[in-house]
Amino acid sequence: MAINREIVNAINENRKMYPILAISGPRQSGKTTMLKKHFPEYQYLSLENIDARNFLANDPKGFFEKYDKFCIFDEAQRAPELFSYLQTKVDEDKIMGQYILSGSQNFHLMKSITQSLAGRVAILKLFPLDFNELKSENLLEKEYVKAMLKGFYPAIYDRNIPSKNFYNSYIQTYVERDITDLVNIQNLRSFRMFLGLCAARAGQLLNLNNLATDCGISQPTAKSWLSALESSYIVFLLQPLHNNFNKRIIKTPKLYFYDTGLLCHLLKIKDENQIIQNAFKGNLFENMIVAEYAKQNYHQNNFDEFWFWRDASGHEVDLIRQDDFKYNVIEIKSTKTIMHDLFKGITYFEALAKENVKSKTLIYAGLENEKRTAADVLSWYDLNLK
Q1: How confident is the model at residue 106 (pLDDT cuts 50, 70, 90)?
Q2: Residue 205's pLDDT band (cuts 50, 70, 90)
């Protein structure tokens, strides 16, 4: 059974306003399943199919006679020539929601869109399942360690594929193939080491020079590989808030993975106890929460911006969301016990930002929510941007 996806609401809104919609996101995030389920009135064509690409290349007139309107072109980045034809077609027809494109390589898809379709396309992103989507089917584990280890890719839930089987195949079939499509990797073993070293740095400040040295590659190579992982929606960087409040601040981004199941697999974590007893537990929990904010933000098409803040003395707030030029301040802790010391980062930041703080939230590993003077205490399970 395919789980309903929140992004459908945003697609329906945008197809009233734009002739083309582009849905990007990592492979296996459910794009094809979602589009086929919710838009059955659209013809579907996968451009992974070489015959489909040859049809377009050899007979574009016949191609667009067959796929005249209300069509889904999957893996659209595989046919770069498609985009200039679409530009002419939608400009002539002036039909809203005429085509839906999907793709799993952000770099190639966005390059083609910006060259040919600027102003004609709404861009949305579908990631692995978010908490709200799983809770709608009563599928979100109540213990965060179980949810974290299981991961959030739809096939794990729709087809009951064991996580270890899914992620082992996913890395070999999709991650390595997509990365080699984007950059020239001559030594796959070095890239696998690089991927593992990135996993070991999840939730931490990214020092690209150290990462390159530890992997035995050059800094430009590390930068290129990291960019490819970002374009394939495996990792993302959280930038620091540059408002310094007259303090020396850290200007280095932090590294996160979009999916904690993949992250745990790369770290060779096989059961919940390995998470609970791991000194890395706090980073894993932080990664899950920051990624959840990112997923819900995209799925609800909110356009919110997120940062973290840290000064040179080590004072830090894990996540900041700006709203009406004010700050929603979020601290993330992997404990199930609420102690006064957990609020110190929020309290310190509030003393600097003063009236510019709109809300204060502590997200923790327990299941009870409560109001505290220092901040609202929110269970990870109830995280919801709505």
Answers
A1: low
A2: very high
Both structure tokens of 166: 């899914």
- Give the residue ranges of DSSP H helices in 279-370: 281-299, 344-353
d(Cα 100, Cα 121) in Å, to the nearest integer? 9
Q: DSSP assignment, residue 174?
A: I
Query: In whole angstroms, what is the distance from residue 81 CA to residue 59 CA?
Result: 12
237 — pLDDT class (breaks 50, 70, 90): very high
In this structure, what token pair is assigned to residue 4? 């309903």
The Cα-based distances of 7 to 41, 51, 205, 265 in angstroms read 18, 30, 31, 27
Chain position carrying tokens 């930002």: 353
A 10 A CB-CB count for 210 gives 13
Cβ atoms of 118 and 86 within 8 Å: the answer is: no
Give the CATH number of domain 7-125: 3.40.50.300
What's the residue count for the chain? Answer: 386
Domain ranges of the chain: 7-125, 132-386
Burial classification of residue 86, based on how many CB atoms lie within 10 Å of its CB (0-12 exposed, 13-18 middle, 19 or more buried): buried
Q: What's residue 107's pLDDT? A: 66
Contact 102, 76 (CB under 8 A): yes
Strands (E), the chain: 20-24, 43-46, 71-74, 99-103, 121-125, 204-205, 235-238, 254-257, 306-310, 316-323, 326-332, 357-364, 370-371, 376-379
DSSP string, 109-124: HHHHHHHH-TTTEEEE
The packing angle between helices 106-116 and 219-231, to 10°, is 70
First-to-last C-alpha distance (Å) of the chain: 25
